[in-house]
């Protein structure tokens, strides 16, 4: 792939920014990559491992001369960072982000974007339970989707250019309206994460079953939940606080359905359970056929 | 390892029985392995791939002369199979099972066991989302736990022999009382499965989000749930119907906790969320340190 941007500034240097840096370098998509993180420790590690070409001491310095700035900080921190960098943005530059929530980011960041700067929110649907500057890897986005969420007046050429970058990093792109994005993600990500966190918390908190029992006997299903529930706490706190309505709506539907299944258990309605469990198998097949997960048993788990 | 049993009869030829056959052969633990499955198709496939040494046309025939009989059928079918084989069991033989629920299996199977035959329930905590005679593999039990649930009057030597077999197949063994087993498994397996089934069912059923959207954008967390929710419907129907009380108790605790977190989201209590999400990370670390899951990001998922 040819170079898409001359200078890309990554604000925040965690899993996503780190993976972007690796992926951009793999394919020569950026002339120079600058980076900034609020934590001195993170900046130190990033410099040490050469995560980006230049680690800067401020967000303002990092964005100077950049034709693409990507905000890779927790959703709750986006507005503050936008205010900080706004005066230092080049005319014609694009500001994007990788936040898991889009309406709240648009409301927090949008007002700070100066005239002549493009603002194109985005969300790569990829991640792992790891976080920090050492957690990124070039393949994270391969064959995953990146949703582009243009705002009113987003420039078509600037959108296409950003999509080229994501495609260059291995992703497939699609465009979506902000509120719909937040609802879809409440289903495919936010509600499942809250549910996993809850189940793991309950297991940890039961007096009658020890933590050792939970840990040793987790291979029967529970351990899958613990992976999700090991995700970054700050990021997820911000997701829930900023996608409140959609998450609560989906959790409401979930609870309703869970009650119906509990009732089927209580009344011994085996047919209801069997039919429900048969239907859910089909969704799994769809995901495998769409190339969004492996068909290897147990995810082809690396032997521990 | 030396041979532990002269003739092992596997009743039911799905994932667990198949994996036992592979594991026993790997280590020469059984002189002969016979097998029977109710479905003619399953018996045909088993014979075709040489899953066991001899596929029999009835459970009665399979258990003749066996010094170990392992019931590998759904929990709801255990009682019927026990009644069928009882008259054909050799004196001194051991009958065991691999059911995910123990109290109900003891109640269903126990009364059929003739004098002079040992009954030693067991439960290997291992599995994948795959089922059927082709799904087994020798490594399934390696480093996983097999819980032995002796009943009143279980013979110590017979218990030790069964534990040797499981250890020979790669498992670690522990002994547990039936009701406690059912509670522990409600936490580490049954409740998580029902929750995963529920979430996948909800996603499938939402008018405002299409199935294609759910499938394509599942990499953000949801796809982990779909693996669990692709497990065998008959097996899981029987699990819930036969571990009703413990499952409903844990689901009750889960719902209570979920409501508390929903309330924290609604009221914007970020500290509560952050603390909760930080605590759940520790459980994941415990599971990895105990060798019950891989530390590779995303389970070291095989690339799709």
From TrEMBL, chains A, B:
EC number of the protein: 1.3.1.12
Keyword Amino-acid biosynthesis: yes
Pfam families according to UniProt: PDH_C (PF20463), PDH_N (PF02153)
Residue stretches making up the Prephenate/arogenate dehydrogenase domain: 6-295
Keyword Amino-acid biosynthesis carried by entry: yes
Functional pathway: Amino-acid biosynthesis; L-tyrosine biosynthesis; (4-hydroxyphenyl)pyruvate from prephenate (NAD(+) route): step 1/1
Record field: catalytic activity: prephenate + NAD(+) = 3-(4-hydroxyphenyl)pyruvate + CO2 + NADH
Single GO molecular function: prephenate dehydrogenase (NAD+) activity
Stated family: Belongs to the prephenate/arogenate dehydrogenase family.
Name of this chain's protein: prephenate dehydrogenase
Species annotation: Profundibacter amoris
């Amino acid at each position: 792939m040819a170079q898409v941007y001359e200078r890309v500034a990554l604000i925040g240097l965690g899993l996503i920014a780190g993976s972007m840096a690796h992926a951009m370098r793999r394919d020569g998509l950026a002339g120079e990559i600058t980076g900034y993180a609020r934590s001195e420790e993170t900046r130190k590690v990033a410099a040490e491992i050469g995560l980006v070409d230049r680690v800067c001491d401020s967000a303002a310095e990092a964005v100077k001369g950049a034709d693409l700035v990507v905000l890779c900080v927790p959703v709750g921190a986006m507005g503050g960072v936008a205010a900080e960098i706004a005066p230092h943005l080049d005319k014609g530059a694009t500001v994007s982000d990788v936040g898991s929530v889009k309406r709240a980011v648009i409301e927090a960041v949008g007002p700070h974007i100066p005239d002549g700067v493009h603002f194109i929110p985005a969300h790569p649907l990829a991640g792992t339970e790891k976080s920090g500057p050492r957690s990124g890897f070039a393949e994270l986005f391969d064959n995953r989707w990146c949703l582009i969420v243009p705002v009113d007046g987003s420039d078509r050429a600037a959108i296409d250019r950003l999509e080229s970058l994501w495609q260059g990093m291995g992703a497939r792109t699609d465009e979506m309206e902000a509120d719909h994005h937040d609802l879809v993600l409440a289903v495919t990500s936010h509600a499942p994460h809250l549910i996993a966190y809850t189940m793991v918390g309950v297991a940890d908190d039961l007096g009658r079953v020890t933590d050792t029992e939970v840990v040793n006997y987790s291979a029967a299903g529970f351990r899958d939940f613990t992976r999700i529930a090991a995700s970054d706490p700050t990021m997820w706190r911000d997701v829930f606080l900023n996608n409140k309505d959609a998450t609560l709506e989906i959790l409401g539907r979930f609870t309703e359905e869970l009650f119906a299944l509990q009732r089927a258990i209580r009344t011994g309605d085996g047919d209801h359970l069997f039919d429900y469990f048969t239907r859910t198998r089909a969704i799994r097949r769809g995901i495998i056929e769409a190339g969004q997960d492996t068909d290897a048993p147990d995810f082809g788990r690396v032997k521990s």
